[in-house]
Amino acid sequence: MRILEMGRGKLIIKFIMKDKVRILTYEKRKKGLIKKAQEFSILCGVETCVILYAPKSEETPAELEIWPPDHAKVMHACHRQIQREAIVRTQKEML
Amino acid sequence: MRILEMGRGKLIIKFIMKDKVRILTYEKRKKGLIKKAQEFSILCGVETCVILYAPKSEETPAELEIWPPDHAKVMHACHRQIQREAIVRTQKEML
DNA sequence: TCCACTATGCTTAGTGA
DNA sequence: ATCACTAAGCATAGTGG
């Protein structure tokens, strides 16, 4: 344990170039983000969805991650979103 | 400033009954959640979407909030999600 | 590789302006 | 009614096993 190097310093938000570090950060922060979404959903009584596209590395293809695990809820949210977009589009076309 | 009551205690994740407190928490945590999603997206180079349905109070109807503000990106994510669900459904039906 | 640890920095509940 | 402040609690980068 090296006491002098325990600090982290202020984190700069910038794409992490090193594959291994990025994948590790991805796993950690994905967990944190979903936890936050879940807490938010419960505390405020709000339907919440998180959709992630995760190109993990050069070898593995893009991977999809969604929350909540109940896909039906996400589908519902997606459909509502698409309906809403369609309505907005129609309204614009009518101008 | 009452020093003795400055503490918060451990937060219990449970629906906030008081309308005003819930709305305040909603606004604060929505901001936090979106910031996290944005950081995550940049750090890991990952497409990320957050969709919230916000029934703010008895008076106001359900309100939709999405991130990123570029709806086209969210639409793209939604469509990919729906396509994926359709593929999964088809695969199940073929069994 | 993946999980555990922990000091640091970040988020936010409670509060006051 | 917002908005700002701040300490407590939380998330997590770096590290070790």
Automatic annotation (TrEMBL), chains A, B:
Membrane-traversing stretches: none
Keyword Coiled coil attached: no
Localization per record: Nucleus
Residue span, MADS-box domain: 6-58
Presence of the UniProt keyword rRNA-binding in the record: no
Superkingdom to which the source organism belongs: Eukaryota
SUPFAM superfamilies: SRF-like
PROSITE patterns on file: MADS_BOX_2 (PS50066)
Keyword terms: DNA-binding, Nucleus, Transcription, Transcription regulation
Protein name: MADS-box domain-containing protein
